[in-house]
Amino acid sequence: MQSREQVYNFSSGPAALAPSVLQNAARALTDLNGTGIGILEHSHRGSAFLEVLQAAEANIRTLAAVPDDYAVLFMTASATHHFTLLARNFLASSAGDATADYCDTGVWSNKAIAAAKPFGNVHIACSAAPDFTAIPTTLNLSPGTRYVHFTSNNTIYGTQWQTEPQVGATPLICDASSDIFSKPIDISRYALLYAGAQKNLGPSGISLVIARREFLATAAPGLAPLEDYRTYDREQSLYNTPNTFGIFVIGETVKWLLAQGGLAAIAEHNAHKAARLYNFLEESEMWRARARVGHRSLMNVTFGGSTKEHEEAFLTRAEALGLSGLRGHRALGGLRASIYNAFPLQGVEALIAALKAYELENR
Ligand code: PMP
Fold first, then answer.
1. What separation in Å is there between the alpha carbon of 103 and the centre of ligand 1?
2. How far does the centroid of ligand 1 lie from the alpha carbon of residue 80, in Å?
């Protein structure tokens, strides 16, 4: 048995949330804002929940300076659903001959690519294959492409786009699931940005979408209501009963981010945390970062040991020390420290101390 105070949760998602967000969520389970009714029990059409929904949207608009001509949508869909929805909306055409460009930077972008293929031509504008340790530096866009899709942070490989791909006037679509709101963002560069909530926002099974309305208007005809992003915009995410609890938690996380000083402040915190760990890995003779300098993720630090045996022995020790969730993705092996917005600096320091101690003992 371990208590919350004894554990640092390095899980890649669902992942650590801010303690105050969890406390507010726990309170709201039995009583939302002094209504005597819990968040799970309130009607999604009632004023108590509508206040939650509207505040969440307003705070997101403030946090990320979302322009007025952009929709902010809460969808009961995970990021994987969007892989299909996007292509269904913006690639499918009656003639079946449209093309979309995809940046292939890892497992999740690959899944997005596979999901788009039934709807039209998919062109790989750049690829990080075969080792996926860096973000490609050149893009080869196809003429007349409908959009360019990229994954801003590659959760599994631990690489991250340092700036958006340069696509000119072509609509840019981003899967920002694992680095949303981790640093300042210029929303006006994006046609559509989506993120599953379970890393930097809240629970799994809900996603946040921020999209230019003019782009949403270009969707293919004949979409069913729940496939069509415009339905969520028109109905303020209330066409069907949304994940009310998920929206509550996202709203609390966004309030927490504003209280931290906003995106510039959290970016500084994230850069410091990641630099501590990467700097240690650079100095270590046993532990080595996987991603190349200049391409490294500030959210998911992937690394390995000098032997598989050291990796396994350290992982066992780490669990006993309360350093949880450090095993790398099964596709890759090694170790991965996911240190999203809410992950504390003390946890990074505890990991560094443990890695250092293991190395000293096993030189
Ligand atoms: N995109 C990225 C970048 C991810 O990290 C993940 C989940 N780890 C997904 C998409 C898929 O999310 P979900 O399983 O919630 O659909």
1. 16
2. 6
